[in-house]
Amino acid sequence: MTRIGVITFPGSLDDRDAQRAVRIAGATPVALWHGDHDLQGVDAVILPGGFAYGDYLRAGAIASFAPIMSEVIDAANKGVPVLGICNGFQMLAEARLVPGAHTRNAHQQFIRRDQKMRVENSDTAWTNEFAAGAEIIIPMKNADGRYVADAETIARVEGNGQVVFRYLDVNPNGSINEIAGVSNERGNVVGLMPHPEHATEAGFGPDMPEAMASGTDGIAFFTSAIRALQAV
Amino acid sequence: MPTIVVEVMPKAELLDPQGKAVVGALSRLGKTAYTSVRIGKRFEVTVDGPVDDAILADVRELAADMFSNSVIEDVVSIEVTE
Asked: Which ipTM did the prediction report?
């Protein structure tokens, strides 16, 4: 069975939720520890949400220098699927595994909402089970979610199809071009601010037009990784 | 003990939400002379021993790779103080 590792950092909050999402999707979650130099042979890695190392210095900055990150960077460069959710996305950006960076939200507030997004690229390791252009609703919650990069980088990322998710209806944090998530060039590393692991079981997901708390749009992130690994 | 002071500022072209909040507070206090505030970071790195070229080179590297993120920030100065 596919084994997907979830790294716990000091200050991680959503590591258990990510493990649960992996289990619901049909893979085996493996708890990994930031202080180890060991990925325990997992097939894919998730950097979960939270406030690792207190988000001191910059969100995700100190975590990007954690011991296990040298193994994560090696694995990512070899094509292992890596997903960074919220704080994990900030870590991926700080580690330069995906382009861009994050700053404080433009409105200076922490924001939590069930966020509509469009899947702009359904060819990545974490989105291949979505239809191209699918519109999904995933919960988001952050204070430092404003995605920024210089104009040249934005043009390159847009041109390469590395914008994987774009906010719809509302730009919740002032991100450039409403960018909610990006990938590396190869498409095995994906980061996004909203939390797919919180939308994997009816009754515990985001509110949907049909029914409260019924959203399960997040499950396809994890089944996509399983499919990508089986295709290898 | 010698201290190396590193100063980091958000890039000029980027919105600085912290600075914007302070400007808002200033205008509410009637301090209308000030049109902009930008907030950066100051790192004071204390060294056990003399600051030689190797230490300075190391701090320059740290300033670029860890104390700042070049996507959103600039290292504006690195100075040695006693």
From this structure: 0.89
